[in-house]
Amino acid sequence: MNDIRKTFDPQDGLEWEGPADLEQRLALPRRDFLKFCAGLAGTLGLPAGAEAAVAKAIESAKRPSVIWLHFQECTGCSESLLRAEHPTLEKLILDVISLDYHETLMAAAGHQAEKARKDAMAANKGKYILVVEGAIPTKENGIYCKVGGHTAIDITKECAADAAAVIAIGSCASWGGMPSTVPSIPGADSSPTGSAGVAEILGKPVVTIPGCPPNPYNFLATAVHFLTFGSLPATDKLGRPLFAYGRLVHENCERRAHFDAGRFAMAFGDEGHRKGYCLYKLGCKGPETYANCPAIGFGDAGEGNWPVGCGHPCIGCTEKGVGFTKPIHTVAKMLNVAPPLQYPRISEDIGKGSSFASAAALAAIAGAAAGGAAMLARNLGLSHQAAELEKAKEAKPKAEA
Amino acid sequence: MSTRRDFLKRALAGTLVGAGGTASGLALARETHPVPPEALGLLYDATLCVGCKACVSACKQANGNPPEFNTADPLWDAPLDTSGHTFNIIKMYRNGTMEKKDAETNGYAFMKISCMHCADPSCVSACPVSAMTKDPVTGIVGYNPNKCIGCRYCVAACPFGIPKYQFDDPLGRIGKCELCRHRHGEGHYSACAEVCPTGATLFGKTADLLAEAKRRLALKPGEKAVYPRGRLGDAAAPGVNWRVEPDQRYEGTVGTYVPHVYGETEYGGTQVLKLSGVPFEKVGLPNLPPYSSAATSETIQHGLYGGLLMPIAVLAGLTFIAKRNVKPEEGDEQ
What we know:
The complex is a heterodimer. By secondary structure, chain A is of the alpha/beta class. In chain A, about 40% of the residues lie in helices and about 10% in strands. Chain A has 17 helices and nine strands. Chain A has helices at about 1-5, 20-25, 30-45, 50-60, 75-80, 90-95, 110-125, 150-160, 170-175, 200, 215-230, 240-245, 250, 255-260, 270-275, 295, 355-400, and strands spanning about 65-70, 100, 130-135, 135, 145, 150, 165-170, 195, 205-210. In chain A, a hairpin with a 2-residue loop joins strand 5 and strand 6 (about 150). The longest helix of chain A is centred in the C-terminal third of the chain and has 45 residues, at about 355-400. The termini of chain A are far apart. Residues about 1-15 of chain A have low confidence and may be disordered. Chain B folds into two domains: about 5-30 and about 295-325; about 40-255 and about 265-290, 2-Layer Sandwich (Alpha-Beta Plaits). Chain B has helices at about 5-30, 55-60, 120-125, 155, 190-195, 205-220, 295-305, 310-325, 330-334, and strands at about 40-45, 90-95, 100, 105-115, 130-135, 140-145, 165, 175, 200-205, 225, 230, 250-255, 275. In chain B, helix 1 runs antiparallel to helix 7 and helix 1 (about 5-30) packs antiparallel against helix 8 (about 310-325). Chain B is elongated, with a radius of gyration of 26 Å. The interface between A and B is medium-sized, with 26 and 40 residues.
């Protein structure tokens, strides 16, 4: 907590604006704004109280410059971000950050647009955030995607050189995604344009927000993390923020109980499918895909609104080698078996060893039994002796007679 | 009066009786019964098992068994072993860091433990009242609680430790897998195979299952192969129409197997077959000879009791000892 406060020490040079200014700028009541900040802090998995830090960071008048590049893609990632609903995200996208270059959203065109990019890069050298959407073709020196006469490779390298942080949004920018799929033509060993991800082009790891499209809140939370803490969040080895991609879809899936009980939809529209049974047998890739889809849903349309919630198996779009690679209805590989301690061992020790009390009780019973037996034998011996004496007595008079 | 001559005569008689018993025993020696040609069974492939325990859950449901609690909170059905209320269980082999599935060192593996449905079951042989029976066609080892006298000889006889008594119930019975034969009439086969998501448990004719197991052993580890799920082929049983299911075959990756089908020869053959990546002895499947103890014990027992030879021999021996120990009173001789 102290660390969070420290980041916002007034000596950092951050300028605060009054609540009235903020409400005007964001066209958002303060209450809703704080709710949004708390939501983002929650998505990031930050401790209670962090929403205040997030709020202060967003309130800051210093809006980071963002340059957003588009290459081989469908703009679905941008669309997904614009459709985020709580609250009106376009306000935050346009007002919280300074989106200086975004081919879909900017009004400028042609040389004007290119100038805006160059200006933003020069003015915010070493401070701007570079966001890349879409794969980058590499075949024939990258001639398959050009903007303003420059190849995607050149533009990426140029923009990344002075960027404070590089974020690859969507599966295409993360590893090549759908454009990198090898066609099912005999002999084909790469995609027609040799599409690659940003990290491959830059030769260094970047933060990736894979998904097709990715969940807007995962991107937003990553950007706000950068705003709040001045650094990007912790990632896995594929560059995915752990707060969003730390767990398998299967682990948090609302249909998990059906999997554990062996209730599966066998065909689309069958009884099990209508009842919401597990989609594993229809090819759900949840067991081998890391994403937080079941936890936060999609499209802000309420609970259960994500592919599996709607009745379609997960296609593994956030996972390289699964999404766009494995056939959609191929059975997934189970990546982990949790929790392993729930399984009995091959030979399980059942019952406990003897306790002192039980051993003592047993010893007492054994002792009593032994003592009783000894006494019985002794008494039998005595009665035998007595009988012998009787016989002897009787025999004596006979002999005398 | 007992003379040396009499003693020798009796001793010779005893020897002859004893020899006769042995001779007849050899004559009555029986072979281990083979698996019936139309026998039904299961094939469990540990390399395909993902440990979801859907089979354990389905088995409980199909057989109306209550959950068994072994954790601090009585929330989950967590049996530690098969019991009178748990006919099927998934156990886990653990070694070292448990990193790799189906690896013997630093790995883990699953094993499904349930009735093996032996070709020549010891429980059936041991049962004094034929409460345990083996179906001549399907080969299912069934249990009839109405005939059972609760002696639990079957519990002691089974080499796999499968039949278990419900000690917690004053009117307890033996609990064991009967391949869901009570559901066959409705067209349902073994619940464990029916729900298995990966086809790790497969239901079918033992002969078909053995062929399928051998097909898998012949595949190269790592390559792609098509695996069936649920019911294999047309596992026909008399008067049973299996319900129609969609084609559930899928393409999977071939695992690394121990090159042996457990149950092909063990104990003279079992109708439930197992494949594993970890040596069978380490996952709780005992190393058994290729013949059934039922054959051995019945040979000995039927030999000894054939023609009441052993009782006669014992009686003769007892008579001899008794006679020798009788000291005639001196007055009797006069």
